[in-house]
């Protein structure tokens, strides 16, 4: 089962993300399944997947929000078309979070309207198999699932239909300091029936390249006010991934008591199965 975060301000919940027992190999993953093997030849490549088909798969496990329905009026969509903010930009360091810790973004910054979400990582390099990590976003409704395939924001679908989210592109190498990939979010333009924005990082072609998050010793997510560039919070992950190939880093979600306010929870939960597994549990057909 996948449950939404508890109300902002509560203590950490280590069972926030739990692997569904009905998914083979998830509740009791084989510890040998993702062990590192020698890297494949450098000329072994496979095409990147395109945008998933329009028909979502059958219902997958999802959490429920016990909250009043959000306002029904549609916000006017925001527009993005600017280049990403400078790598590592932002004023101050913000609040340093630990796993499962939550923070009310609206209380920390009452005038907050637009977010810069920066994600970064360092990797253990292997000469013949360079890493390619991808940041993705799932826009979830109250049932814990995407409403439509277009609610899956990634390198081949960079902007949400309501214009509220813009992915600034795929960094194929992860080289350099600061943010490796950046996502812009206009909170005022997020559709009223979207309650959660899940930010995750996955490894591209993990089986082919014999790679996993145990080879990514440092990763982070930071949340900043895009208009003032002030950093609100940051979560640094330390050896959270093990032999897994997908990681939910954090989540921005509406306050159950006041849907106009937003909070953030540092999740830091990794899974086997890569991007396809995340798509399965959030209702995106990525086959």
How would you describe this protein?
By secondary structure, this protein is mainly β. It has a domain at 95-282: Sandwich (Lipoxygenase-1). It is 6% helix and 27% strand. It has helices at 105-108, 206-209, 274-282; strands spanning 95-97, 102-104, 114-122, 133-140, 152-153, 165-167, 181-186, 196-203, 218-225, 231-238, 246-254, 262-271. The longest helix is centred in the C-terminal third of the chain and has 9 residues, at 274-282.
SSE topology:
Layout: E1 95-97, E2 102-104, H1 105-108, E3 114-122, E4 133-140, E5 152-153, E6 165-167, E7 181-186, E8 196-203, H2 206-209, E9 218-225, E10 231-238, E11 246-254, E12 262-271, H3 274-282
Family: Belongs to the CAPAB/TerDEXZ family.
Subunit structure: Possibly a heterodimer of p31 and p34. p31/p34 could also associate with CABP1A/CABP1B to form an active complex.
Region (Disordered): 1-94
Brief rundown of the structure:
The protein is mainly β. The chain has a domain at 95-282: Lipoxygenase-1 (Sandwich). The protein has helices at residues 105-108, 206-209, 274-282, and strands at residues 95-97, 102-104, 114-122, 133-140, 152-153, 165-167, 181-186, 196-203, 218-225, 231-238, 246-254, 262-271.
């Amino acid at each position: 089962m996948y449950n939404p975060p508890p109300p902002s301000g509560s203590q950490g919940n280590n069972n926030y993300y739990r692997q569904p027992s009905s998914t083979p190999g998830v509740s009791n993953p084989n510890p040998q399944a993702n062990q590192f093997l020698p890297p494949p030849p450098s000329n072994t490549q496979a095409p990147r997947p395109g945008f998933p088909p329009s028909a979502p798969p059958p219902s997958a496990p999802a959490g429920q929000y016990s909250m009043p329905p959000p306002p029904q009026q549609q916000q006017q969509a925001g527009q993005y078309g600017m280049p990403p903010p400078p790598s590592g930009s932002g004023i101050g360091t913000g609040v340093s979070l630990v796993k499962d810790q939550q923070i009310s973004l609206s209380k920390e910054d009452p005038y907050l309207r637009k977010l810069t979400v920066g994600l970064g990582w360092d990797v253990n390099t292997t000469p013949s198999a360079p890493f390619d990590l991808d940041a993705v976003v799932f826009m979830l409704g109250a049932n814990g699932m995407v409403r439509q395939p277009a609610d899956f924001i990634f390198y081949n679908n960079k902007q949400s239909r309501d214009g509220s989210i813009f992915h600034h592109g795929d960094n194929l190498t992860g080289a350099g300091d600061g943010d490796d990939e950046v996502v812009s979010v206009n909170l005022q333009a997020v559709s009223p029936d979207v309650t959660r924005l899940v930010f995750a990082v996955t490894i591209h072609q993990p089986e082919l390249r014999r790679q996993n998050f145990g080879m990514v010793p440092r990763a982070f997510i930071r949340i900043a006010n895009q208009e003032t560039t002030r950093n609100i919070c940051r979560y640094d992950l330390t050896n959270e991934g093990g032999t897994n190939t997908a990681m939910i880093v954090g989540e921005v979600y509406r306050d159950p008591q006041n849907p106009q306010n937003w909070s953030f929870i540092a999740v830091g939960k990794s899974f086997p199965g890569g991007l396809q597994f995340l798509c399965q549990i959030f209702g995106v057909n990525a086959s």
